Amino acid sequence: MKVIVVGPRGKMGKLITQIAASREDMQLVAGVAPEGRDYIGMDLGQAALVGYDLGVPVVDNLESVIDGCDVIIDFSTKEMAMVVLELARKYKKALVCGTTGFSEEEMERFRAAASEIPMLYAANTSKLVNVMNKLLEIVAEKIGEEADIEILEMHDQWKKDAPSGTSKEMGEIMAHAMGKEISDLAVYGRHGECPREKGTIGYHSLRAGNIPSSHSVYFGFMGERLEITHHSYNWECFARGACDCAAYLADKAPGFYTIQDVLNL
Ligand SMILES: NC(=O)C1=CN([C@@H]2O[C@H](COP(=O)(O)OP(=O)(O)OC[C@H]3O[C@@H](n4cnc5c(N)ncnc54)[C@H](O)[C@@H]3O)[C@@H](O)[C@H]2O)C=CC1
Ligand SMILES: O=C(O)C1=N[C@H](C(=O)O)C[C@H](O)C1
């Protein structure tokens, strides 16, 4: 499978490049970085600190290399992801997008592209987060109406979006399990709102140092609470998952795929 990585010097892009380079089922064909970066034209292996040359370049124009790939892996910014999406559609290339921070309209563009290309969107490519999502679905279905539900997520100081894509997805999963729409339940940054409004889901975001990612969901009852938590120690679990998603698309027809399909959850 021939792979292009967008943002190969980013936290995720670098790891994805390193992991893809180590996989026998993948061949990297280029990295795509923003115009003006001093590593444009450099070997992708050097730029992404793989430790050896890959014999393919980092370019600043996706369109100049897109013909040579089977799949594009995008963990960049919401602006660049939209550019990548349109080019993937134009050239009929499979796309894995793990970028977060999109509006509902932008998410709809990913779903629309699925009639033309194999499209996999995953706000979180960690296996254990997606197992946690299954647990949340069960718990919300059983006790969601009774509990005060609060989501707390922690990330590094550089993260561009809040709340995290994962926490938004967790809220949606729980709302659906309760037969509701998250737009009717969500309260962002609850502090200040007292007493707590019953039947809502609160979101709390904390940004500090280089915390890779933590998500906790609290189900508050009278006299007891249930907490379900995932911590990542670094970003490797997400990068491995991203490469598994790309490999999953190898023989797929156009359609909208999710990490749940990849993990068979
Ligand atoms: N789905 C998942 O499991 C995960 C998703 N993410 C998401 O992935 C995204 C990236 O996260 P990080 O790697 O931490 O960010 P980062 O800031 O370290 O990397 C972003 C990369 O995108 C590149 N980029 C920006 N504009 C570009 C353009 N016009 N052309 C080419 N490249 C461009 C930057 O040069 C940079 O290398 C975020 O939205 C984050 O929330 C992060 C971790 C896991
Ligand atoms: O930016 C990150 O780091 C992460 N972003 C994703 C999100 O917004 O949920 C996934 C994971 O939490 C890491």
Overview of the molecule:
The two termini are 24 Å apart. The protein is elongated. The mean pLDDT is 97. It has helices at residues 11-22, 44-47, 78-91, 104-113, 127-143, 165-177, 236-248, 259-263, and strands spanning 2-6, 27-32, 58-59, 71-74, 94-97, 118-121, 148-155, 186-188, 201-207, 213-220, 225-232, 255-257. With 265 residues, it is of the alpha/beta class. Helix 5 (127-143) runs parallel beside helix 6 (165-177). It has two domains: 2-121 and 236-263, 3-Layer(aba) Sandwich (Rossmann fold); 127-232, Dihydrodipicolinate Reductase, domain 2, CATH 3.30.360. Helices cover 33% and strands 23% of the residues. The chain has a seven-stranded parallel β-sheet, sandwiched between helices. 1,4-dihydronicotinamide adenine dinucleotide binds at residues 6-7, 9-13, 32-34, 75-77, 80, 98-101, 122-125, 161, 165, 235, 238. The site of the ligand O=C(O)C1=N[C@H](C(=O)O)C[C@H](O)C1 has 11 residues, from helix 6.
Summarize the structure.
The chain is of the alpha/beta class and 265 residues long. It has helices spanning 11-22, 44-47, 78-91, 104-113, 127-143, 165-177, 236-248, 259-263, and strands at residues 2-6, 27-32, 58-59, 71-74, 94-97, 118-121, 148-155, 186-188, 201-207, 213-220, 225-232, 255-257. It folds into two domains: 2-121 and 236-263, Rossmann fold, CATH 3.40.50; 127-232, Dihydrodipicolinate Reductase, domain 2, CATH 3.30.360.
